[in-house]
Amino acid sequence: MPEASRLFAAKNTIELWQQQGLLRAIDAQLGSLLQGAGTLEPIAALGALVSYQVGRGHTCLSLPQLLRDPVKTLGIDDSSSEFETQFRDLMPDLAQLVAALNRCDSVLCVAGADAVDALQPLVWDPQRQLLYLRRYWQYEQRIATWLGDRTAQLQQAGPAEPLRAVIAQLIAPKNDAISWQRLACANAAKQHFSVITGGPGTGKTYTVVRVLATLLSFHEHLRIALAAPTGKAAARMEESVNAALADTDNPALLRVKSALSRKASTLHRLLGSQRNSRYFRHNSAMPLPFDVVVVDEASMIDTEMFDALLDAIGSHTRLILLGDKDQLAPVEAGSILASLCQGAKYRHYSAAHRQWLMAASGETLPEPAASVAPGLHDHIVMLEGSERFQGAIADLALAVNACDVDAANQALTKIRLLPAPSLAVVAGQSMPALAADPKASAFWRELASGFASFIALCNQGEVGEEEAINAWAARVLSTYADYQLLTALRSGPWGQQQLNRMMEQLLRSGSASGSGAWYHGRPVMVTSNDYSLNLNNGDIGIVLKHPSDQRLRVVFPAPVTEANPAGVRWILPSRLDAVETVYAMTVHKSQGSEFRHAVMILPDRDSPVLSKELIYTGITRAKQQLSLVIPNTAVWQTALTRRVERLGGLFVASEEQEL
Ligand SMILES: Nc1ncnc2c1ncn2[C@@H]1O[C@H](COP(=O)(O)OP(=O)(O)OP(=O)(O)O)[C@@H](O)[C@H]1O
User: Fold this and answer.
1) Phi, psi at 524, each rounded to 5°
2) CA 244 – ligand 1 centroid, Å
3) Domain named RecBCD enzyme subunit RecD N-terminal: which ranges (predicted)?
């Protein structure tokens, strides 16, 4: 086909890709809209593909990468080889595409942070050869501008010496090692934007509480907000902060205790979400009324939410992010924490900042191999050395994080591995099949046995006053959190749905009461936000026969107050539209939670979602005990070497950071 007419060929490719199940309806719709507005088919198809990539977590599409290897870039199943042919038939070469993008009315070509108010649906960044949906390009521009402003402010910090005395009272030095906690404390006290990253138990909460104590030594009064991306993560943040301040007689920490007048909230609630709108009540026109905003579990913040958060942080407010950069990226597009922290392990700070940090913390930082310019890396401190995890779980987490298959296999020898039965046995879906096969029966019963104390407590019930009933319900909720099955996938024989079905068949018979979907002892997870009931996606409740009238109600955790010392609330099942049974949950859903004993179950076949981030997140949900079900060791090994890579235009690591 002559090159010029190639641009006009393959009129129905977008529909074809939708029919083939590659594009989602929303991607194809954008492509069709672009085409309807007179956009050339290849550009309209690129629009559909950028939208598709956003659905996969990327904020943009690299054109050279796409043209070099479309199948890999789009993560398409190798078996559908037709796609590559269709793609190559449709797309001209890079130079022609770039020329067409430059001429297209639906595409804004930008060289930098100009034209944030653009109206074109697509944005082309010719320098980095990235194509964006306008919305995501605008988010990234605003985020980069906000962070750039904060980095410029870094130079204006006050003297270090007064801080040094305060920090020395709050965090003990480490024997023969650098106290990264002291450095993180100095860093966050110095500036208006900081990040404290580290694995589970490395002391992020311990440190941030001391950052607040340090700030309160210099400011008589501080308005402080604590928040996290989900309700569960906010509840856990609240618990950890309370634990970090419990039983203290340190006057600086006592000041923090009295300054924390608000409960930790979700980011949505903090920013003021509005019904049927993606915009929040707090924004640059009405910034959050706080001096310090601390956000935990920052690995779950996507690009859109980060933009909304920064927009609501006024120039006098300090923002401190806490999180584990190695955890799974958020469900929506972007991987803010991982991108912010990409050079964090090198601890390369610019010369003046390094000197200041050493003076304020009393610690000695290693000399960098080359001089480093001031930048985002000056805002970030990575903690290390878990204060909670020791032994096998810590060794395994470390090996998985490093994608070190040998070390991970070595650490596995110290972890409890549940023998996985054959697939045929696992796929059996009914109790008769289960009863007929002793091997299957043993496997499922072993998994179900972890719920024994929970079921026993549910069935024990409680007679008496409301206070005693509520205290029992609170014990049921906390006992539930002792044991959790985690799956990598949602469907399939080793997926969450199958496991829930099997657990339900086994455990429901043990507490036979109630009918239909609702029954005594059923753990449920809320699957979408319900503002009228004040329930968030991911909240977990337990269906119980209320001892006062034997009616089924669902008990959820609630803030502990004088009027509600047990911290529970009861909701009628009929008021809950979106819930699912949750003996097992996906690792994605488990982010922000921890369980005394976690059992992670991998599938027997490879899937693109199996990555070292997923495995790391799953195993670090276990507080004390971890069990693993690995039906196929090849799947385990492949997953360990697969990293989640998300393309975005923000904070691309500079060469010198990687030194
Ligand atoms: N410097 C320290 N000295 C004594 N105890 C510490 C120190 N740092 C942390 N700890 C203790 O280690 C435990 C874990 O700390 P913390 O909860 O702050 O970790 P985290 O990084 O916030 O964990 P997670 O990621 O699970 O939220 C806590 O019991 C805390 O009191």
Assistant:
1) -130, 145
2) 8
3) 19-128
Is residue 526 over pLDDT 90? Answer: yes
Cα(388) to centroid(ligand 1), Å: 7
Residue 46 to residue 52: CA distance in whole angstroms: 9
Cα-to-chain-centroid distance, residue 148: 24
Neighbour count for residue 280 (Cβ, 10 Å):
21
Paired residues of 227 in beta bridges:
265, 295
* 172 CA from centroid of ligand 1 (Å): 13
State both tokens at 218: 């210099």
Distance CA(296)–CA(594), nearest Å, equals 14
Can you give the pLDDT at residue 15? 87
CA distance 388 to 631: 29
Higher-pLDDT residue of 200, 618: 618
In 3D space, the residue among 602, 649, 599 whose CA is nearest the CA of residue 626 turns out to be: 599
**Of 9, 7, 44, residue with least CA distance to 28:** 44
Beta strands in 402-548 (DSSP E): 416-417, 483-487, 523-526, 540-545
Q: Is 48 helix (H, G, I), strand (E, B) or coil?
A: helix
Number of Cβ within 10 Å of residue 285's Cβ equals 7
CB 45 within 8 A of CB 131: no
Q: Is 242 in the pocket of ligand 1 (CB under 6 A)?
A: no
Nearest to 182 by CA among 213, 225, 219, 153: 213
Residue with tokens 């596995």: 412
The closest-lying atom of ligand 1 relative to the alpha carbon of residue 199 is: 25
First-to-last alpha carbon distance for the chain, in angstroms, is 48
* Global pTM value: 0.87
Q: What CA–CA distance (Å, rounded) separates 628 from 649?
A: 37
Q: What is the pLDDT of residues 422-433, one digit of tens each?
A: 655 555 545 556
Does 618 have pLDDT greater than 60? yes
Pocket test for ligand 1, best of 388, 393, 620 (most atoms within 8 A of CB): 388
* Residue 204 assigned to a binding site: yes
